[in-house]
Amino acid sequence: MKNASFAILLACFLPFALVGCGGGGAKSNTVQETRTTTTGQELMDLQKAHQQGVISDREFERQKKKILSAK
């Protein structure tokens, strides 16, 4: 009788223990991006880097499109 009671308790509470360990439920990978600069500031910084020769014309255009499409 003692073993049967233990088996019933185990069967009732084991699923809850597994969920707490990540064994149940769907996983969600949500990424939230927080911007600390404005689009205008990013474009000005990009222009400055381009004028100083830090980035090429091609990289400037690629990054500019990326910045503008983020809005």
Identify the quaternary structure here: single chain
What general outline do the C-alpha atoms trace?
rod-shaped
Main sheet overview: none
Q: Tell me the number of strands.
A: 0
Strand content: under 5%
SS summary, helix count: 3
The helix content, as a percent range, equals 55-70%
Write the layout of secondary structure elements.
Layout (H helix, E strand, L loop, with lengths): L1 H19 L18 H13 L5 H13 L2
Helix pairs in contact: 2-3
Describe the protein in words.
The chain has helices at residues 2-20, 39-51, 57-69. The protein has 71 residues and is mainly α. The chain has a domain at 36-71. α2 runs antiparallel to α3 (57-69). The longest helix has 19 residues, at 2-20. The N and C termini lie far apart (67 Å). The model has no long low-confidence stretch (mean pLDDT 79).
